[in-house]
Amino acid sequence: MLVILAFIILFHIISATLLFISTINNAWWIHENIYTDLWMTCNGTCFAIENGESAAAGYLQAVQATMILATILCCVGFFVFILQLFRLNQGERFVFTAVIQLLSSLCVMVGASIYTAQHESFQKANLRKGNFGYSFVLAWIAFPLTLISGLMYLILRKRR
């Protein structure tokens, strides 16, 4: 049982780490030496995304919000799991932790999907030739990890 518990904790920490890196790091879209994330564009010096606060960039604000919410929910889910680990009676499931983790997974999926569908319509013509960066890929990797983690919590029972 201790091995399963250690594996689940490690899985959750990896998910949270991937969410932090993908949300914070500056590599959602890459074109030559220009890196764009959810807030800034950098090519040696960083500057705010042009018209990032306009209605045309509403999708970008939605991606920012869902990725931040996913990261917060993942961290809250971990703390709730630790609390439930010591508070639940034997045989009960970690349902509350599972719900929080599944909501985190949903937020990651929504944010990455919106970015996938809408980023080219907002990019300047010279940036459209680029590729998705590793932060974008990490966001998509974090989605199944948080989903699997949530399902593991749903199945997991507190045993002796």
Helix and strand succession? HEEEEHHEH
Biggest sheet: strand arrangement: 4-3-2-1-5
How many whole angstroms does the radius of gyration measure? 18 Å
| Class per helix and strand makeup | alpha+beta
Q: Which descriptor suits the 3D outline?
A: elongated
Number of strands: 5
Strand percentage, roughly? 5-15%
Helical amount among residues, as a percent range? 55-70%
Q: Between the first and last Cα atoms, what is the distance in angstroms?
A: 8 Å
Number of helices: 4
Mean pLDDT: 84
- Low-confidence segments, given as residue ranges, are none
Largest sheet: 5 strands, antiparallel
What would a concise description of this structure say?
With 160 residues, this protein is an alpha+beta fold. It has four helices and five strands. A five-stranded antiparallel beta sheet has the order 4-3-2-1-5.
Tell me what the structure shows.
The chain is an alpha+beta fold. Helix content is 64%, strand content 9%. The protein has helices spanning 2-24, 58-87, 95-122, 134-155, and strands at 29-31, 34-36, 40-42, 46-48, 131-132. The chain has a five-stranded antiparallel sheet. A hairpin with a 3-residue loop joins strand 3 and strand 4. Helix 1 packs antiparallel against helix 4, helix 2 runs antiparallel to helix 3 (95-122) and helix 3 (95-122) packs antiparallel against helix 4. The model has no long low-confidence stretch (mean pLDDT 84).
